Amino acid sequence: MASKLLARQAVVVGAGMAGLAAARVLADYFEHVTVLERDTLPTETSHRSGIPQSKHVHALLGGGQRALSDLFPGVEDDLARAGAVPFRVGLDVRLETPRHDPFPRRDLGWIAYSMSRPLIEHVVRRRVEQQPWALAAIPDFVFPQTRGERPPDFERTREFGAALTLLAARDAHVHKLMIEVQQLLMPRSALRNPDLVERVRAVMAET
Questions:
Q1: Which of 199, 196, 178 lies closest to 187, judged by CA?
Q2: CA distance linking residue 69 with residue 65, whole number of Å
Q3: CA 146 to chain centre
Q4: How far apart are the first and last CA of the chain?
Q5: pTM score, two decimals?
């Protein structure tokens, strides 16, 4: 499989929603992606001066939710855990328009989420931050002198990685997949295939 990498470095100006989405896309095509932001980014869900409109009412449209889900699989679960409120489009929201007061309520078949702008930005920023750290920094965190905040599931991730490496030594197909992910030829999600995860867990149970 030919490498998708275009160059070594990409720079994104701004850590708002557009910048974060752009950084995620570029991460598949550049070895390093740097996001420049003049604000001190909050560690919690809170407003910041660089997004003066963040206190306004916001809505995440269905197309935007689908695009974020494509870029960050499972992001809807992340939003819900962070406090976003799921609702059934067409049913759980009252719509009032001229001559239709209220508009008929119908379940249109998909779930959307109600949240603040700071909440969605915080969740997406965390996902962007996880992209390079998960591949590059997790092994370095084994060493006490490595600076940086350890992810909450650091120990479990380290154990999974060790078991995956052991399985790769036994199985040429797993070895090839692991190297392809490390070389950014395949997405990291390829390592979350249910069958592979089950095999890795079996190796973890051996130790």
A1: 178
A2: 6
A3: 24
A4: 34
A5: 0.61
The answer to whether the CB of 200 falls within 8 A of the CB of 167 is yes
Decide if 78 contacts 121 (C-beta within 8 A).
no
Please give the structure tokens belonging to residue 185. Answer: 């030829």
Give dist(CA 173, CA 200) in Å, integer: 13
Mean pLDDT of the chain: 82
Would you mind telling me the total number of residues written for the chain in this entry? 207
Let me know: does 182 contact 3? Beta carbons within 8 Å: no
Residues 6+ apart with CB under 8 A from 115: 58, 60, 79, 82, 83, 84, 85
Across the range 50-73, mean pLDDT stands at: 87
Report the range of poorest mean pLDDT among 57-66, 138-147, 161-170: 138-147
